[in-house]
Structure formats: C-alpha cells, structure tokens
Amino acid sequence: MSYPESAPARRPAVVLLATAVLLVMAVAALAYTVVDLAVLGRTVGAFRSAARGTSASPQQIDDVVTLLRVSAVLSAVVAAFSAILLAGLALGLLAGRRGVRVATWVVCGLGLLAGCCSVAVLIGERAAPLRLGDGERATAELLGLIADAYPSWWIPVNAGLSVAQGLGYLVVAALLALPAASTWFGRHRPSAPTVPSAPPGFPPAPYQPQPPYPPR
Fold first, then answer.
1. Nearest to residue 115, comparing CAs of 104, 107, 127?
2. What is the DSSP letter of 134?
C-alpha cells in the first residue's frame, strides 16, 4: 500500500542554528533597548554640566537635550521592534514556513545595510567632526559635547554591536541558503490524498457494477 509523501519531522541543524542566531540577536536588541533608556538620564545630566561652560544660551542647551532624548527614544523603539521581528522570524523558521525564509533574507539584507551605515556614521563622526560657521559657534560647542556626555564605553559598544549585527545577518542568510535548509523548506506537501493501491500479492478488487436507478 502506498501512502502520500510526508515531510521529515526533524529540523536540520542549519535551521536550528539560524534560529538560535536570530534569538540571540533579538535578546541583544532587547538588552540594548533597556540600556539605552537607562543611560539617558546620566547622559543628559553630564551634558548639562558640561554645557554650562559654553557660550550657549539655556534655550539652545534645552534644544540639544530634547534632541538627545528624542534620538534615544527612537533608538529604543527601533531596537524593541527589531527584537520582536527577529523573534517572530525565528518562530516562523522553526515552523518550516517557506515565506518566512524569504522574509528573513529580506530582513537580513536591510539589517546588514543598517549596520554598515551605523559603523560608517560612527567612523565619520570621529574622523570628520561637524564644523559650523562663526555665527553658530554655540551650537558647534554643544554638539561637540554630546559624544563626551555618554559613558566612555557607550560608543565602542555601539560599534561592536553594529559589527556583530552585520555578521549575524550574514550568518543567518548563509545558513538558510544551504541545501539542507532548502530541502526542509521545499518539502513536498500534497494537496490531496492519493488512493492506496492493493498490497503486493493480492489481486485488485473486482469491478462491481451499480444497479440502474429506477425511472421517476
């Protein structure tokens, strides 16, 4: 007797590893959200203390503080959304959904691009600081104090996370492109059950004609 083809229940190691990497990245993004909001108050306090020795007015200082808070909140929101998205992709991969595999590739490409842009911005800020005109000297002084207001470990950790994020996306995309993953996500799912045939050694059942229906 023949039965419809079924997909193997065991997930390949490459799929499990890709899922584990996504979950680790989700936890890291969630931790970044918490730390980003935790250091905000200390950063604002250090910035205000350093800004008192500049020629900036209180209004200009308040404007930069608002910029600091908005950027920190936006970064936290993006990191929290990334954590939820990566966790959802990991669950979809474990379920063997082929559409989630394609969506993961798209997210990996966008995440790799964002990580490269973050590293480029950090390097650019250090290599070529922002220079403004003489009429905006106070603003230039305030913007120059932002990096020093953060904890000393903040910028190196951000750079390291950006690099690790890019490597993680590369690893996940490569693992999902391996033949074992392709077999898992491309497994056959029959749309309709097949009719079982007679076991070997047994003749097929004889044809039995149906009686005619009586006329109405």
1. 107
2. G
pLDDT at res. 186 = 80
Of residues 130, 160, 161, the one with CA closest to residue 145: 130
Question: pTM for this structure?
Answer: 0.73
Q: What is the dihedral of CA 150, 156, 160, 161, to 10 degrees?
A: 0
Taking alpha carbons only, the member of 25, 175, 33, 167 closest to residue 87 is 25
Residue 4 falls inside a structural domain: no
Q: Which residue has the tokens 């229906």?
A: 213
Would you say how long the chain is, in residues? 216
For 3, residues 6+ apart whose C-beta sits below 8 A from its C-beta are 194, 196
Amino acid identity of residue 98, one-letter, is R
Residue 102 belongs to a domain: yes
Of 19, 20, 3, 10, give the one whose Cα is nearest residue 183. 10
Specify if 170 maps to a domain: yes
Q: For residue 57, is it within any domain?
A: yes
Q: What is the pLDDT of residue 32?
A: 92
Predicted local distance difference test score (pLDDT) of residue 190: 42
Query: Residue for token digits 């910028």?
Result: 155
Token digits for 193?
Answer: 């059950």
Q: How crowded is residue 204: how many other Cβ atoms within 10 Å of its Cβ?
A: 7
Task: Extract the residue ranges of the chain whose pLDDT is less than 70.
Answer: 1-9, 119, 121-136, 188-216
Q: What confidence score (pLDDT) does residue 14 get?
A: 94
> Which residue range is the domain that position 25 belongs to?
13-177
Using a 10 angstrom Cβ sphere, with 0-12 exposed, 13-18 middle and 19 or more buried, the burial of residue 191 is: exposed
Q: How many domains does the chain have?
A: 1
